[in-house]
């Protein structure tokens, strides 16, 4: 049985978020983000980014913009896309703000689910 080593709760989106990722300090390229936690995220891209590579991730949650640095810690290659897991390298304040926004997002989704 595999052990879940995640330190933070993870928000899995019903529909992928549009985001951007910069690799090698270059231009931002569009990606689809499938889930986010205060410690990292999972996205898909046509780029095959090497494990350990530093990236900058840009996305919005509830009108709050985030620009977070991290590194590729996991990847799975598909037919046309590569799914990458990123572990963030952020300060406590940024992590707390992301955690707060993810909580608000979860609460809002649960409320809308219960009223539908």
TrEMBL record:
Source domain of life: Bacteria
Example of a GO MF term: cyclic-di-GMP binding
InterPro entries (alphabetical): PilZ_domain
PilZ domain sequence ranges: 4-95
Family matches, as SUPFAM superfamilies: PilZ domain-like
Gene3D superfamilies cross-referenced by the UniProt entry: predicted glycosyltransferase like domains
Span of the signal peptide: none
Pfam families in the cross-refs: PilZ (PF07238)
Protein name listed in UniProt: PilZ domain-containing protein
Organism of origin: Planococcus versutus
